[in-house]
Amino acid sequence: ADDFSFAMRELEFFVIGCYLIALVGYWVRLGVNISGRFGWVTQGFAMAGWMGQIVVMLIQWGQEGVPPVVGYRHTLFFLSFAIVGLMHVIEYRYAMNILGAFVLPVAFLCVVRIPMIPELAMTDPRLVSGWLPIHAMATFVSYALFITAFGVGIAYLIQERQLKAKHFGGVV
Questions:
Q1: What CA–CA distance (Å, rounded) separates 28 from 42?
Q2: Coil, helix or strand at residue 88
Q3: What pTM, to 2 d.p., does this model score?
Q4: DSSP H helices in the chain
Q5: Distances (CA, A) of 108 to 1, 20, 77, 101, 143
Q6: What are the per-10-residue average pLDDT scores of the chain (172 residues)?
Q7: Mapping DSSP to helix (H, G, I), strand (E, B) and coil, where does residue 101 land?
Q8: Which of 113, 105, 103, 104 is nearest to 73 (CA)?
Q9: CA 19, CA 112: separation in Å to the nearest integer?
């Protein structure tokens, strides 16, 4: 069990590292207006972190027998997973390749907080039913939608300001 928890911690730190590199890359892209391969690498690190989260959540689900949305650590992890997943969908669908500069900081803060939270026992058994995971997942997906809408709004405000000033930066 000790080796298993160590491996899980290593996977969590892999996710943290990928998101940190992607976050710095998005901010550099925003400030310097770099595109091309640098953008693909930045998005690749964000995608690698997201895939790492999938692996961690599947392992936790298999080990604990319940979806990984029960408990504080799991909910933060799922929230960051939902935020980054929505970010990738919007970036792909609407070609808004700079969205990560505004949305990824929230996901990164959620994931960075996870190693500081102690492993706690599962929620009260009376509360664990088939509805709890459905409710928790729907709630955190809606939180992720609000956070992503916030990021899109900030990007829009910056873009509008740049267009009015006729100064085209990383958002336009």
A1: 10
A2: helix
A3: 0.86
A4: 2-32, 37-64, 72-94, 100-113, 131-165
A5: 27, 7, 10, 11, 15
A6: 76 95 92 77 95 93 81 88 95 88 94 84 66 87 95 89 75 54
A7: helix
A8: 113
A9: 9
